[in-house]
Amino acid sequence: MAELRQNVVTREWVIITPERAKRPDQFVKPKGIEPPLPMSSPDCPFCVGNEHLTLRETFRIGEGGNWRVRAIPNRYPALTDTGERVRKVDGIYRSMSAVGFHEVIVEHPLHNMTLALMPEKHVADVLRAYRQRYRAIRKDNRIEAVILFKNHGEGAGTSLVHPHSQLVATPIVPAQIRHRAEEAIRYFDDTGECVCCRTVQDEVRAKERIIIQTRHFAAFIPYAALSPFHIWIFPLKHVSSFEEITDTEIRDLAGCLKNVLARLYYGLNNPDFNYSIRSIPTRDLRVEYFHWYLTIVPRVSKTAGFEIGSGMYVNTAFPEESAEFLRKVATCD
Amino acid sequence: MAELRQNVVTREWVIITPERAKRPDQFVKPKGIEPPLPMSSPDCPFCVGNEHLTLRETFRIGEGGNWRVRAIPNRYPALTDTGERVRKVDGIYRSMSAVGFHEVIVEHPLHNMTLALMPEKHVADVLRAYRQRYRAIRKDNRIEAVILFKNHGEGAGTSLVHPHSQLVATPIVPAQIRHRAEEAIRYFDDTGECVCCRTVQDEVRAKERIIIQTRHFAAFIPYAALSPFHIWIFPLKHVSSFEEITDTEIRDLAGCLKNVLARLYYGLNNPDFNYSIRSIPTRDLRVEYFHWYLTIVPRVSKTAGFEIGSGMYVNTAFPEESAEFLRKVATCD
Fold first, then answer.
1. What distance lies between CA A210 and its chain's CA centroid?
2. For B147, which DSSP code?
3. Which of A4, A145, A151 comes nearest B305 by C-beta?
4. d(CA A117, CA A108)
5. Per-residue confidence at A194, pLDDT binned at 50, 70, 90?
6. Distance CA A67, CA A106 (A)
7. Chain B residues whose beta carbon lies within 8 Å of the beta carbon of residue A199
8. B158 touching A, CB under 8 A?
9. Residue B30 — very low, low, confident or very high, per pLDDT cuts 50/70/90?
10. Which residues pair with B210 in a beta bridge?
11. For B143, what's the count of Cα atoms within 13 Å in the CB-facing half-sphere?
12. Out of A78, A199, A304, whose CB is closest to B314?
């Protein structure tokens, strides 16, 4: 039976349509269409030995040529860290100087590695680099929001295959981040609860959409998932911003994230995907009403004119079935 | 110089980055990669002679085998028109029965035709079909919003190449449509003006982002366009819902829309695109604060993790340059 569902965190409605549905295994990427990658590529600016091709490093884990993770400014930045915030308001025309940060986090020395296959300890190093860069950049008083994200595969918008993530820090609060914070405040005022705490607690209790649960995190398909295998990883404990993650939680998240990405890798044959870490605006540290989380969107479906005209999505897979499919994937751990 | 810009209608910020920019002509689709389509295809359910392959027609223009435009229920509907609206609220879990309408508007008898190449009179027939279906379906008291849209090309999410549009009518107000209405109300309360009226008047005065202006419409690249060649077509006169469009305005819009689509067709070599008509929720007929419009999004860029994590877009082309490029395209009229 088709159904409309509303996501209580985002307030977005989604149409879930079994009539058009594929079975979960129909989203598996066909095998053998991509040649295997080499361990190292002479032209890749992120490979060992080519460190001189990148801009001045902002952070690294590991010494000398034995680095494990590096952070560097993006050579083609969307925003740059020189100059002041200059805001212009001329009637309906509102602009701001493009000041901010745009960094790359090189996740591993090997060109052909991917988070799903890295040791948990290495994934933890990547997350430590995220946290260090978030904390360092948020201190800049021109910054209002920090977005950490990853584009995996050409279909997910990446141009360089060497495993890397990105950080963009903006001098304004993006409208969607502000809007979701406002909705969370309203929920808090109505109920006295953080809507994200309520969601993760209820999902843990309901079980049917959980992929895995670790000591500090739960990974699940949202009740109103926007697309097949849309995944949320939530901290079980209330924390409003990613930068507050503890060392213990980083180790635990590394295991949880690797496990989920390995389920996608083996279950769907290394699909293209994006993920992003959503926190509150940087000036609103430690609020009661919002909770940071990580959202993963495998690129197994297309959006079209309906989504552009309504902001609504059509999901051809029931979240409960997607979750069951991923729970059953053997991850070779 | 890179710049952040805010769209006063949607409140969304966009990063416009000339450092990463391509010149407008670099968005032109490579020639010769697609074989030409036949005028008719024996398996196509929308071709003349195959009318029996579609469900019961809801509207047609033209008699018998000489139809010009047909409306039919979608064979794989996202929503169906049987049953009542049944809403369930169980804590954070909110759902609604998937009741609504999902129709296809077959735009032309010829398999290989496209709006950019049709006579204006035929485009007007397509728009008349939109209006007739909008008016008929909005009367159903289960419906809260009607979204008209078109997916052109595989990259824009279509599976059937025969020229067609779609209509989806939902039993809830999509969150984005509600949210934009709320923002427009706030603007109205602050200024006493419709934000869309203000926008189109200022764009007509500024000229630099206008593609063409007709008697009743202006087509322009929004000041904070989300992507290269993102286009808005606005009525010059305040009308809150598409269903109120007059016969005179339909003839004028047909010319305007065909002209803009022909500029994309010839200028960018028939790119994949989506368009959508955005109106207010159907129960709010004739409001002062909002204005219907048509939005066109050519698929010349990709979204990735940054967009997923922030709702913000990065546009690699300045709207003023995109508009200038389209103004210069010869449309063979």
1. 18
2. E
3. A151
4. 11
5. very high
6. 10
7. 92
8. yes
9. confident
10. B220
11. 23
12. A78
User: Closest by alpha carbon to B304, among A9, A314, A148, A100?
Assistant: A148
End-to-end CA distance of chain A: 37
Q: Which residues of A touch B233 (CB under 8 A)?
A: none
CATH class of A3-327: alpha beta
Report whether pLDDT(A21) > 70.
no
Cα–Cα distance, B198 to B220 (Å, whole number)? 14
Selected from 3.30.450.20, 3.90.420.10, 3.30.428.10, 3.40.630.30, the CATH number assigned to the domain covering B7-328 reads 3.30.428.10
CB within 8 A of A89, min separation 6: which ones?
none
Specify the pTM: 0.94
Tens of pLDDT, residues A45-62: 999 999 999 999 999 999
Q: Which two tokens stand for residue A61?
A: 């884990």
Of the ranges A136-145, A166-175, B280-289, which one carries the lowest mean pLDDT score? B280-289
Report the distance separating Cα A274 and Cα B296, nearest Å. 25
Place of tokens 């689709």: B29
Q: Which amino acid is at B317?
A: A
Query: What's at A295, amino acid-wise?
Result: T
Say what the pLDDT of residue B33 is.
Answer: 66
Verify whether residue B164 is a known catalytic residue. yes
Q: Which residue has the tokens 């290269």?
A: B228
- Alpha carbon of B71 to those of B67, B68, B163: distances in Å? 11, 11, 12
Say if residue A214's pLDDT is above 60: yes
Sheet holding B93-97, edge to edge: A313-315, A13-16, A3-6, B93-97, B87-90
Nearest 5 degrees, angle CA A207-CA A212-CA A213? Answer: 80
- The per-residue pLDDT for range A222-262, each reduced to its tens digit, is 999 999 999 999 999 999 999 999 999 999 999 999 999 99
Kindly state whether B191 is in contact with chain A, defined as any CB-CB distance less than 8 angstroms: no
